[in-house]
Each structure stands twice: as C-alpha cells, then as structure tokens.
Design a protein that fits this description.
Blueprint lengths: L1 E12 L7 E3 L3 H9 L4 E8 L9 E2 L5 E7 L5 H25 L2 E6 L2 H12 L4 E5 L9 H13 L4 E6 L14 E3 L6 H6 L12 E6 L8 H14 L3 E6 L5 H10 L6 E5 L3 H9 L3 E4 L8 H8 L4 E3 L5 H5 L4 E3 L5 H12 L2 H15 L4 H16 L9 H8 L1
Parallel strand pairs: 1-3, 1-6, 3-5, 6-7, 7-8, 8-9, 10-11, 10-13, 11-12, 13-14, 14-15
Antiparallel strand pairs: 1-2, 2-4
C-alpha cells in the first residue's frame, strides 16, 4: 500500500538528509517506524523558510519520500489570514496526492492534516487519524469541533486513535476510538540508553525538566519552587531543556529571583544529547497542567530517573506502584513538598529509578508500530505490504 501522511509538522530543507528534509520532535522517529509496515510512504508537510531549529532529525525511512507545501508566515490570527492565500494551492496538491495514495494518515490537530482528512473522506480512501493533542481536553473551539467530528466518523474504515491512555476508552459515544501511546525510542535505544546514578545525601542535587516552554508545561511554578528548595538543599540546581515563546519570560523570572547560576536553559537538543543530560541528573520534575502522552517523561524513566509529576492524563498509570511521586497540586509549594519528600529517602529514590526504567521498556517504537499496524490490518481487511497476505503480516507484526 502507498501511505500518504499529511501533517502540519514544520519541515526544513536538509541536503544531508536522505529525503532532503528534516524536522524535530518524535515525528521523524515515528514516521521512520511507520514506513516499515507500508510499501511506500509519502509525507506531505509544510516547508519552513527560516533557518533550521537546533536538534532537527532527518526524515528518512523505508521507501519514504517527502513533499512540501509553503508554510504561511506569522502566528495565530495572522497565520490564519495568510492561510487563505495558500489554501487553493494546498487543496489542489492534497487532492492530487490523496488520489494517488492507497491510504491516508492525518496526525491532528493541524490545519494541513484537517484538510487532508476531509479530502480523504471525500475520496473515500482508507483513513487513519491519530489525535496527538489532549484528547478530552480541547485546547480551542476548533479542537472541540474536531474531537466531536472524529467521534462521528470513526468506524471500521476510518481508524481513529487518540494519543494518551486510561482505564476507560477515549470516547463514551464511539468505542471505535482507541488509545495509542507515544514514544521515540526503539528497543535497542531503550537497552543502550545511559542510566542515571542514584543521588547520595549531601551531594549536589540536579533537577531536570524537558518540554516546550509554553504555559501548559508550568515551568514558572517549578522555578518559583527553587528558592524554598535551596533552603534545604543549597547545592540544588535545575536544567530546562526545550524552547518556546515563554523563554524570555522564564529567563527574566530567573533573574528576578537571583537564580542565574542555578537554572540552566539548554534549548532544544538532539535526541541523543537529551538522554545524556537526563542520565547526568538526579530527579525529573514534570509539573505539567495537561498532557497527551508525555514522551519526555518516558525518556526520563528510560534513564532510570525518579520522577515528580502532575497526576494528569496517563501519568498516574506510568508512575503507579512506586515509579515516581505524583504532585498534590500544581503550584510551587506542591513541588517543594514532593521534591523534599523524595530527597528525604535516597534509597527509595534509587528503587523508583530502577522501577521506572523497567516500566519504560515496554513502550518501544516497535510496539507502537505493531499496535498501529495490527489495528489497520483489522480495519481495512488487507495487508499493508505487497506480496504478503493478511495472516503473513500479522505474524510479522507480532
């Protein structure tokens, strides 16, 4: 089968990439993995004219190609206005590529993916939608409409999976919608990932957090907690990995609190370097206000770090049974209480880190790929790769 992936993911031209393009986040790893279960994969994404973001990864895979469309400049309302001028060209290209494809995958939310989803429905193509946002917690009026629309269209032909996890299905009204976790780590990477050394009482404490610097990540509260934590642990420091529109505001907050020598903003880093920085730390703090499936937390677990995190989304399931501590609230005082409690028992911290690493081993890209592949085979009733029967591919995916 020829799979067409239509995604708003920002893409940069990259002469060193086998496909000619690179992007960031977990997307390139997931696309490489997904390409392994299809004959051909074409990614249709948005070309960013600015210089490459730090930490980009080549888009590559098994018979994988990339085609781009121009990205509207600006943000928010300005971007939506400029989108009107791009829409005709977008629509023509998307219509043509959907017609040539055997199946369409639309990661959502995102304007390009939404248009692709609608075109696939109009052309009655096998459709796979992966909602990568916060299912059940709409971030906007559009996202609220989108989730309701997905509940209406999900059926045996239109496969809809929501990123996250819970003991109950994502949708009460449509059981066809199922959960899927998110990861960017292969089995080999999980086995070979560096392991953090357990913290010993009396030594400096290195806290770390990873994520986009946006309001929902709640880094402001974490930084506000540092002065109180340093009263008990004077050698405590924090590393913040990630970029976002709150960077300048968070740096100003750090200066106002006199923490310039305590907080390190490392920006975006290549995937391998993130794991190295995690392994050099002692505690991963994740006070997020809401979440889909936190890849960053999973990577911290992989490195054997004890976790302090908010009890939102799938996090209680990931940390339940002693793999970490759940915050009692999402303010600075709650972070102080949890981190102080954790540091009061180094032996428990070591046990938490070991359990966290063991639990992370089951969240591999191979398992992610196989769960999606099996679901698509069951839904569409035919193999995804030419030359193999449906039963053959079931065996391969297993």
């Amino acid at each position: 089968m020829r799979l067409l992936v239509i995604s708003h993911k920002e893409t940069w031209a990259d002469p060193l990439s086998p496909s000619g393009f690179s992007t960031k986040g977990g997307f390139p790893f997931q696309m490489r993995s997904m390409s392994e279960i299809f004959d051909e994969t074409l990614i249709l994404s948005l070309l960013r004219s600015s210089s490459q973001s730090p930490g980009v990864v080549a888009l590559t895979g098994d018979h994988l190609r990339v085609k781009t469309l121009p990205e509207p400049n600006g943000h928010d309302l300005e971007r939506k206005f400029r989108l009107l001028f791009h829409l005709p060209r977008w629509f023509v290209t998307i219509w043509r590529e959907v017609a040539h494809a055997d199946a369409v995958h639309a990661p959502l939310p995102g304007d390009l993916g939404t248009i692709g989803m609608i075109v696939a429905l109009l052309q009655k193509k096998p459709l796979f939608v992966r909602h990568c946002g916060r299912w059940g917690i709409p971030s906007s009026a559009f996202d609220r409409w989108l989730q309701r629309f997905l509940e209406r269209i999900a059926n045996s032909r239109n496969v809809v999976m929501a990123t996250g996890g819970a003991d109950h299905p994502p949708s009460k009204s449509n059981p066809e919608i199922t959960w899927i976790f998110s990861t960017a780590l292969t089995e080999k990477e999980l086995e070979q990932s560096p392991i953090a050394q357990p913290w010993q009482a009396g030594l400096p404490v290195r806290l770390i957090t990873v994520g986009s610097l946006l309001p929902g990540k709640n880094i402001t509260a974490l930084i506000n907690a540092l002065p109180l934590l340093r009263e008990h642990f004077p050698q405590l420091s924090l590393e913040v990995i990630g970029m976002g529109r709150l960077l300048n505001e968070l740096q100003q907050q750090t200066r106002q609190l006199g923490l310039e020598q305590v907080v390190q903003f490392s920006g975006n880093l290549p995937h391998e370097e993130v794991l190295i920085h995690l392994s050099r730390s002692h505690v991963f703090v994740f006070p997020t206000l809401y979440e889909g499936f936190p890849k960053a937390l999973l990577e911290a677990m992989t490195c054997g770090l004890p976790i302090v995190a908010s009890p939102v989304s799938v996090i209680p399931r990931l940390l339940g049974g002693g793999a970490g501590l759940l915050l009692g609230g999402q303010d600075a005082s709650s972070i102080v209480v949890a981190v102080t409690d954790l540091l009061s028992n180094p032996e428990r911290m070591a046990a938490m880190g070991q359990l966290a690493r063991e639990r992370a081993q089951s969240y591999t890209l191979e398992r992610w790929r196989d769960e999606i592949g099996q679901r698509l085979i069951n839904a569409w009733g035919k193999p995804l790769k030419q030359g193999s029967t449906e039963s053959d591919q079931r065996v391969e995916l297993a």
